[in-house]
């Protein structure tokens, strides 16, 4: 019986194992070889030389500094807003929650363009002098990640046992003392876990830093891109990729351990949200401030896309930027129209979605089935650890690995239409797995045993027991994967061919070509991309699957 179960486990894991070996192990091995081997010989000195460069030191310092600053601000804003949205009851609360979720799912290119339009000298906040500054990058990172803190901390706050706080208040503690001595210690695991995840997201940010930082400010992600595409220094890019891989793996292990910290106050004895009081005014003000900070860049982006510059330099309102999307820009900026790039993005997103669902579904089934022997438990543990390795690879590193390894023999996939969907599927895979695993793990295994005792095979048991429970989270996972694929820029920037670009790649190319018409097209394309992603996420949000905050 044990041998039969192990054989079934191996059958489920065969396809994900094969895909990860070819499209993860091979690219990572290629990066290591490119960094440490020169002319067929081990060359540690070459890697060490990369790490002694002053520019490398500046890149590492800016990555750590910007991630730390953005994390602190995100936590400082996110915690009070989580209190308002999860502990207070007021009209429009669900709408505000949904609005503050939007930034996290917007493509990085869109956010970068929005902040650039807002902060340029002619922009609404141009007088602050933040255009091209490091604080513009931090603001963009906070824009993305405050919602992560809100959702993860808010969910924990919503489930806290209210009895300890009530007891402290009955003993004469003021509301501030109750928060400091009872509530905050209970929330600390959720806050620290959210902070670690936000730091990880900020440290691996790409599109925001690339668009807002230019060549003056670079993170490790954007430096890998710069070294590869501009300086053609593949050794430096490989060395930075290896360093980032190790750092991200350490952060993921730390975040995973922090998420497993038990919360001793979680209980079924919870209180529903209450009406706001006068003492809640500062926190309501912080929520209004964050909501305005989210709306301002998006509103500026939309307004900018509707402004057309006439021959005399005057700005008028119109739809010319949107009509121009069917063309190739001024001075032949593009090889294909923006509308064709959108079509490419949609087609690739469909392929990336079914690939990530197939792989993620199989992975979730493998890691959530109950082990009935020590051998099965060990095999499942090894597979679980192996399947989590792609979490430690950023999109830029993955795209770079594809570029330098999948270029010869039967694995020469540089011209294959399947390469970009596969890369984007691997980027979305952790999101799919995180969505499905908690649901599948919560299914009582006795139901599967009962189905098996009635003669149902493994496939029929999944269809009759698992599928009715998991279909809504599966649709949500599909929506997340589709949205991630539409906005993916890191890996795609390495792999997209000039005649088959995606919309984020085209937007970045338009930004790199001078002329107001090209810039207007970039703004209009960003709005179209943002609206497409927002529509997808609106459907996902209606499924009410609270899984985004645990990524």
Structure description:
- The chain has two domains: 1-29 and 321-551, MetI-like fold; 66-215 and 284-303, MetI-like (MetI-like fold, Orthogonal Bundle).
- The protein is 72% helix and 2% strand.
- The chain is mostly helical and 551 residues long.
- α3 (54-87) packs across α8, α7 runs antiparallel to α8 (175-203) and α10 runs antiparallel to α11.
- It has a two-stranded antiparallel sheet with strand order 1-2.
- It has helices at 2-36, 44-51, 54-87, 93-105, 108-119, 134-158, 163-170, 175-203, 207-213, 220-229, 234-259, 281-305, 320-323, 338-368, 374-387, 395-405, 419-441, 445-453, 458-487, 492-495, 503-511, 516-542, and strands at residues 37-38, 41-42, 307-309, 315-317.
- The protein starts with a helix and ends in a 9-residue tail after the last helix.
């Amino acid at each position: 019986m044990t041998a039969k179960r192990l054989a079934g486990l191996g059958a489920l894991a065969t396809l994900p194992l094969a895909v990860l070996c070819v499209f993860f192990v091979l690219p990572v091995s290629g990066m290591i070889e490119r960094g440490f081997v020169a002319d067929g010989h081990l060359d540690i000195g070459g890697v060490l030389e990369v790490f002694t460069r002053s520019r490398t030191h500046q890149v590492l310092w800016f990555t750590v500094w910007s991630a730390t600053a953005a994390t602190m601000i995100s936590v400082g804003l996110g915690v009070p807003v989580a209190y308002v949205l999860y502990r207070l009851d007021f009209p429009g609360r669900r709408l505000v929650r949904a609005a503050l979720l939007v930034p996290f799912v917007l493509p990085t290119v869109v956010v970068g363009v929005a902040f650039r339009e807002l902060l340029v000298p002619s922009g609404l906040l141009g007088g602050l002098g933040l255009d091209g500054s490091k604080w513009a990058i931090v603001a963009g990172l906070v824009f993305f990640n405050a919602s992560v803190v809100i959702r993860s901390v808010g969910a924990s706050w919503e489930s806290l046992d209210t009895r300890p706080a009530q007891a402290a208040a009955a003993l004469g503690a003021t509301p501030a003392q109750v928060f400091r001595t009872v509530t905050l210690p209970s929330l600390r695991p959720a806050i620290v876990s959210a902070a670690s995840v936000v730091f990880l997201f900020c440290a691996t940010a790409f599109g925001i830093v690339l668009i807002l930082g230019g060549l003056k400010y670079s993170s490790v992600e954007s430096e890998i891109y710069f070294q590869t595409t501009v300086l053609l220094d593949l050794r430096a890019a490989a060395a930075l990729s290896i360093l980032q891989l190790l750092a991200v793996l350490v952060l993921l292990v730390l975040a995973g351990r922090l998420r497993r910290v038990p919360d001793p106050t979680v209980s079924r004895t919870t209180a529903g949200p209450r009406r706001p009081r006068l003492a809640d005014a500062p926190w309501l003000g912080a929520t209004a401030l964050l909501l305005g900070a989210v709306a301002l860049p998006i509103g500026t982006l939309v307004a900018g896309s509707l402004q057309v510059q006439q021959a005399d330099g005057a700005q008028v309102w119109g739809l010319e930027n949107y009509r121009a999307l069917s063309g190739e820009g001024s001075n032949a900026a593009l090889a294909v129209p923006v509308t064709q790039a959108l079509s490419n993005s949609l087609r690739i997103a469909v392929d990336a979605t079914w690939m990530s669902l197939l792989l993620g579904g199989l992975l979730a089934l493998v890691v959530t089935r109950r082990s009935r022997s020590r051998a099965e438990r060990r095999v499942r543990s090894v597979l679980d650890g192996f399947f989590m390795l792609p979490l430690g690879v950023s999109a830029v590193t993955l795209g770079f690995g594809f570029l330098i390894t999948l270029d010869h023999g039967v694995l020469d996939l540089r011209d294959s239409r399947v390469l970009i969907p596969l890369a984007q599927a691997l980027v979305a895979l952790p999101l799919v797995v995180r969505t499905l695993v908690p649901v599948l793990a919560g299914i009582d295994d006795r139901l599967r045993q009962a189905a098996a005792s009635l003669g149902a095979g493994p496939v029929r048991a999944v269809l009759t027991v698992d599928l009715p429970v998991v279909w809504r989270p599966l649709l949500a996972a599909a929506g997340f994967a589709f949205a991630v694929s539409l906005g993916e820029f890191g890996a795609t920037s390495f792999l997209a061919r000039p005649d088959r670009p995606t919309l984020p790649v085209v937007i970045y190319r338009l930004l790199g070509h001078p002329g107001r018409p090209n810039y207007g097209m970039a703004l209009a394309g960003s709005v179209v991309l943002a609206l497409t992603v927002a529509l997808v996420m609106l459907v996902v949000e209606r499924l009410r699957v609270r899984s985004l905050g645990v990524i």
